[in-house]
Amino acid sequence: MVNGEFREVVIVPAYNEGKTIFEVITETKKFAKNIIVIDDGSLDNTAAEATRAGAVMLRHKVNLGKGAALKTGCDYAVQHGAQKLITMDADGQHDPKEIPVFLATLSQYEIAFGSRKAPKSMPAILKFGNKVLTKTMQILYGVRVEDSQCGYRGFTAEAYRKIRWEATDYYVETEMAIKAGKKKLKHTTIFIETIYADKYKGTTVFDGMIIVAKMVGWRLWK
Asked: What confidence score (pLDDT) does residue 122 get?
């Protein structure tokens, strides 16, 4: 069960991250006592490794998508008294040492968006794609977020209730930002370091095209 004394929880969605999840949780425990991993229908040993590392484990029997996994984790955390929620990826891209910065920021803001500094190791297609998605969201919704696709972010429990998303896939980050803008939540940006592995896992070009299409659809029909 989540430790109610601290009321600060890190949410980590994971799908086939058995090679990295133990180290991610071990490092995260240096900065947060309450860590929830949502095994989103993994076919490997993700659940076993996360449990071995000491995380609270939630499981989807089948793969439902990142958005669904995040919602499962956030719902559980809020139901167990969490007041500050941090979301981060399971593949080692996000440095847990940033967690205290996010938590401190949430004492002044309702939501804190991580923004990836663009290292030389960041694939060029990702740099271009992020700029396109961020600019599209700004044009369609007037929401200015430095890095709309960064999964490292934090929000209060009250903010979560206002931005609770419908997306089950990678559109989750975009939907969060759009709803935060519509609800006029007090938000800020935290610039973070990001480590890119040789084999990148995350939003693809195809995913980006779907996200743009959904943004246009939301603007027309919602």
From this structure: 58
